[in-house]
Write a structure and sequence with these properties.
With 265 residues, the chain is of the alpha+beta class. 40% of the residues lie in helices and 19% in strands. The strands form 3 sheets. Strands 5, 6, 7, 8, 9 and 10 form a 6-stranded antiparallel sheet that branches. Strand 5 and strand 6 (178-183) form a beta hairpin. Helix 3 (84-96) packs antiparallel against helix 5.
Length: 265
Amino acid sequence: MQFRYLSGKNLLILVFLISIVLSSCSYSKNTNTSSNEKQLTSIKKKETTIEKKKVEDDIIFLLNNYEFNLNKPFEDNVLKNLNANDLAILRNSIYAKYGYIFSTKKYSDYFSQLSWYTPTSKYAESMLTNIDNENIKKITDLEKCLENLQFKSSKLGFSITFPLNWKGNYEVVEDSMGIIVYFKPSKKMEAKCGEFFIIVNTESENYYQDIYDTIGSMRFFEVNNTKYFIGVPTDFPLPDNHPEKELFIKMKLDIPDILETIKPL
């Protein structure tokens, strides 16, 4: 067998060709690695974008015939129409849109019925935006105001909360057997008039069911083995020419929601 020796020039050419081949392989490997890293980064960005989009998309929350966009500032004049229970639900809806897991069954059951609610252990307070925090503050401020509009009677054993738009326009008269809620006109009248509703012990001598109508879904409720009747006058309890007649009629529309706030103490 004969070996042919390469000249110095040919040897240089061979080394150069080998280095090109090796460089090409290395480039190909680096290119593939770089491509894979870019693909993974793209997937992660896409997943983050999808999660972010879920929060950024408008979520329209229907509550008590009002629409609330959970990603925009709530209107003060609309919030004032909500009772204490509605305000609590609306406040918790802000946490619900981020998947907050509620320990209270009432809210867990409520939000589980909504298509946009997806519970997740990844929830963190840092997810809340400036708008979220602003809306939460508005609601909590109103909830504090409503505490001052709550009538509590340890004697009767129950409480009832009136809405903000009733502030200064109503009066509660209490005795040992129940309460009567009256309209409070801006100008004092000689005799009480404008009765909104009555809550009276069914054992009371003043319990005249025939002169009262029912309103809403509540007619009776029981607290500490005491049964109470709820009724509104069958006639119009204000003079037809009363200057605040329209306000009285508007306030009467809130009575069903007010009665829903009755709670035993």
